[in-house]
Amino acid sequence: MTDTLTDHCFVTVQHAGTPAGRRIDIDVGGVPVPTYFAEPRNSSLDCPPRKIILYFPDVFGAFYPNSQLLQDYFATQGFTVLGIDYFFGDSYALHVNDPNFDRPTWREKSIDQAKTFTPGWVEAVKQKYGIEGVKYFAVGYCFGAPYVFDQGETGLLAAAAVAHPTALTLDSVLKSKAPVLFSCAEIDDAFKPDLRRSVEDALSAKKATYYFQIFSGVSHGFATRADPSVENQRWAKEECARSIVQWFKRFSE
């Protein structure tokens, strides 16, 4: 349905800040899957989390500073956040300045790893935090968007959100049971206007609960890799994050 990764998927401006979260490992069949973990400041062992965001990152990974800071922001809003590193330490962030990097081979390897480990990672998170009294949400950026809809299909999610998605199929979107927010860029070769409108038409015909927002003057990747020195990009990035928080809070009670 949507195109696979495009050149915009691999362009970034690194953001400044000090991450507040930490790395944990989630065991999946004996394999430790690196995971970025951020929690609200008032968290305690006596008060287990009740609102959990599963964070599916773009090609720069859950441990890229931009992603860490974004996950930290979600945590300040009352959510426990777990970001999967399905790149196992080999995100594109390590190769961004290598003109000879074999991107297609890396992409295929990364997709295989994500498909292999993401379902077990989610199951392990569920085992760790439980289901009773817990609301799960998922957000996916670019590369991570399909895994949001995979979980939406299972019925796990109270709500879902994706920003500038890639590699979606209409079938996967329609099978998802979760209310979904689409945060979209005006300029996006991976989620072009005709594809975006066809998804909206299909969701409308299904009578699904959905919300589309489209930001003018920004490109694919704005939600995680915008240039904060450009006012329009900075505002779009921040408004996207705020909107996701409000969307999830709507379904958190």
Architecture overview:
This protein has 253 residues and is of the alpha/beta class. The chain has an eight-stranded mixed β-sheet with strand order 1-2-4-3-5-6-7-8, with helices on both faces. Strand 1 and strand 2 form a beta hairpin. It is globular. The mean pLDDT is 95.
User: What general form does the structure show?
Assistant: globular
Please give the largest β-sheet: 8 strands, mixed
CA distance, first residue to last residue = 33 Å
Uncertain stretches of 5 or more adjacent residues: none
H/E element string?
EEEHEHEHEHEHEHH
The helix count comes to 7
Strand content: 15-25%
What is the C-alpha radius of gyration, as a whole number of Å?
17 Å
Helix content: 25-40%
Mean pLDDT: 95
Instruction: Trace the largest sheet across and list its strands.
Output: 1-2-4-3-5-6-7-8
Q: Would you tell me the structural class of the helices and strands?
A: alpha/beta
The total beta strand count reads 8
Map the helices and strands:
Elements: E1 22-28, E2 31-38, E3 51-56, H1 65-76, E4 80-84, H2 103-129, E5 135-141, H3 145-154, E6 157-163, H4 170-175, E7 180-187, H5 193-206, E8 210-219, H6 222-225, H7 231-250
Parallel strand pairs: 3-4, 3-5, 5-6, 6-7, 7-8
Antiparallel strand pairs: 1-2, 2-4
Descriptive key words:
about 35% helix, 7 helices, globular
